[in-house]
Design brief:
Layout lengths: L3 H5 L10 H14 L3 E3 L6 E3 L1 H20 L3 E2 L5 E3 H4 L3 H7 L5 E4 L2 E4 L2 E4 L4 E8 L4 H11 L8 E10 L13 E11 L2 H21 L5 E5 L11 E8 L5 E11 L1 H6 L2 E3 L5 E3 L1 E8 L1 H10 L16 E5 L4 H20 L4 E3 L7 H10 L4 E5 L1 H6 L1 E6 L10 H8 E5 H29 L1 E4 L2 H9 L4 E5 L4 H11 L2 E6 L12 E2 L6 E2 L2 E5 L3
Parallel strand pairs: 3-9, 17-18, 17-19, 22-23
Antiparallel strand pairs: 1-2, 4-8, 5-8, 6-7, 9-10, 10-16, 11-12, 11-24, 12-13, 13-16, 14-15, 19-20, 20-21, 23-27, 24-27, 25-26
Helix pairs in contact: 3-7
The structure holds one RNA strand.
RNA sequence: CGGGGUGUGGCUCAAUGGUAGAGCGCUCGCUUGGGGUGCGAGAGAUUGCGGGUCCGAUUCCCGCCACCCCGACCA
């Protein structure tokens, strides 16, 4: 770490965009905000308290939405017997290359060294779940007999393991936390409705809670979930212009019901396989949050996800002032708590106020209240925002001044909730504007190449190629079809028919192409 | 698993064939206090692991392991 005063004393500013710088910036934010770090365990992540507190807030918001749509939580085993896992062929082969497998159940001491006891080999290996479809459907077989048992709407909060070659904090770790919904329905229509409904739940969450705008659409065959008939996703754009898949909702048809032999008797008395969906979001969302809003000063949090929304900092230079200002801070704390604000006082002695500002800004606290002797005299409070809407060409000094406001005490307290609400909206608007600035409607391959050669972003492109041609595009430009967007997701300027950018064949609508994480 | 790189106090890095030093961080004291105060004292490392060469290895050689970057794979 460098001397704080030298390299880190930077104002909130535009984020650098060169890929390597961006990766470094991302790690710096995580470190400054004390969110997470690499574990000594290969590919695994330690989520620190502040990072976990954000996850808990996400969980709560999501859980409320799942409950509101009729879902219940349950829990299923971490281990999946290999035979269960192989019941759906495409599913098994899709995940085959990234599975951790338990083969023994005992250790023993040999010459003072602890080794795996070869005699404890399991008859059947256990796969550590990379996702739980198979183990859950093995159970559903016992739960479903009649159309009266349907729909079965269940969600699980769990950890899963995918043995990735390369990992990145939050975005791709060997073990990650997530929720996975697994539902069973009597008809295809119902299951499809559920698939679409849950995608809406996700987009509602990412936009209204995370303040991250997303494009909703269908995945191409090559990008589909292993074992799904249809995969829907929400795609966000990060500040470097890359796309991030933030959530998926799958229509599984009768594939898993057949694999686990789950039949029900319908109203006509006939046996039928049930129709399934599954959907999930993970701690990757925290990565999306960081990469969408944060700046060079550190994390920026939408107020709805900020574990601490307001930090109160008493300022003093002697014992008398310390007592007075911390006392005043305590009163502000109580009043804000009563309003339902997540607030904390930082009364640590021996740390300069400036150092505290940097620390809490790095952690993404949206609002800071400074209480010093001058404020007590005037009966005012200083409120400093973590960010303000940008004004083009504004000097950093001017922006800093604009972030602070001095208000009479009562007025200041009353302004907190409306300000938090405004900041929540501003973040979404800012993210929308950033996305719009890096989105193009493109018809010519040369233009496409140029766009992605100079930073890139989202490209609305006509496509009518094959899966092989899709791969060819990926090899040539490092881009992929993020999704085939729903009609209402396509901006007006990108609507209409045209011809495929690669093959020239007629195309009914444009798809979303981008480089992605 | 292929190609490249790196392993030295908590972090970022120096140095040296004669068993290590700085900055930041940490602890204590004073000082300071509305954007990272300043000074002083102090704690903290069997130099990734194993072997070889050598009187002597953190340094040279070999093997292994871990991590990072670039590919293949991905929520």
């Amino acid at each position: 770490m460098n001397k704080p005063g030298e390299t880190q004393k930077t104002e909130a500013a535009a984020v650098t965009t060169r890929a390597q710088d961006y990766a470094q910036w991302y790690l710096d934010v995580i470190k400054k905000a004390c969110l997470a770090e690499h574990s000594s365990v290969r590919g695994c992540m330690v989520i620190r308290p502040h990072g976990y507190a954000i996850w808990e807030k996400m969980q709560r918001e999501l859980d409320d939405r799942f409950k509101a749509t009729g879902h219940e939580n349950a829990y299923f085993p971490l281990f999946i017997p290999l035979s269960f896992f192989s019941r759906e062929e495409k599913h098994a082969s899709g995940f085959a290359k990234e599975c951790a497998v338990v083969t023994h159940h005992r250790l023993k001491s040999v010459d003072g060294e602890i080794v795996v006891d070869p005699e404890s080999k399991l008859e059947e290996p256990l796969v550590v779940r990379p996702t739980s479809e198979t183990i859950i459907w093995a159970q559903y077989k016992n739960w479903i007999q009649s159309y009266r048992d349907l729909p079965l709407l269940i969600n699980q909060w769990a950890n899963v393991v995918r043995w990735e070659m390369r990992t990145r904090l939050f975005l791709r770790t060997a073990e990650f936390l997530w929720q996975e919904g697994h539902t069973a329905h009597a008809t295809e229509k119902e299951a499809l409705e559920e698939t679409w409904r849950m995608l809406d739940v996700y987009s509602d969450f990412t936009e209204n809670v995370m303040a991250v705008p997303v494009i909703k659409g269908r995945k191409t065959e090559g990008e589909r979930f292993a074992g799904a008939i249809e995969t829907l996703s929400i795609e966000g754009m990060m500040q470097d212009g890359k796309a991030l898949q933030m959530g998926t909702s799958h229509y599984l048809g009768q594939n898993f019901a057949k694999g686990a032999d789950v039949k029900f008797q319908n109203k006509e008395g006939q046996l039928e396989y049930v129709y399934a969906t599954s959907w999930g979001v993970s701690t990757r969302l925290i990565g999306a949050l960081i990469m969408t809003h944060s700046d060079d000063a550190g994390l920026v949090l939408p107020p709805k996800l900020a574990p601490i929304q307001v930090i109160v900092i008493p300022i003093f230079k002697n014992e008398e002032e310390r007592v007075k200002t911390t006392d005043a801070a305590g009163k502000v704390l109580a009043e804000l708590k009563a309003l339902g604000v997540a607030v904390r006082v930082d009364a640590r002695d021996g740390i300069m106020p400036g150092a505290k500002y940097y620390e809490w800004e790095g952690k993404g606290v949206p609002l800071r209240i400074e209480i010093g002797p001058k404020d007590l005299e005037k009966g005012s409070l200083c409120i400093a925002r973590r960010f303000v809407p940008e004004i083009k060409g504004e000097a950093p000094d001017a922006q800093r001044r604009r972030r602070k406001s001095f208000l009479p005490r009562a007025e200041a307290i009353a302004s907190i909730l409306p300000t938090l609400e405004a900041m929540q909206k501003e973040l979404l608007e800012r993210a929308r504007a950033n996305r719009a600035a890096r989105t193009r409607v493109i018809d010519k391959l040369e233009e496409f190449e140029k766009f992605f050669g100079e930073g890139g972003g989202f490209a609305w492109v006509h496509w009518a190629g094959t899966s092989e041609q899709e791969e060819e595009m990926t090899k040539r430009f490092e881009t992929s079809i993020r999704c085939i967007p729903f009609e209402d997701q396509i901006p007006p300027e990108a609507k209409g028919e045209g011809v495929c950018i690669l093959t020239g064949r007629p195309s009914k609508q444009r798809v979303l192409m981008a480089k992605s994480y």
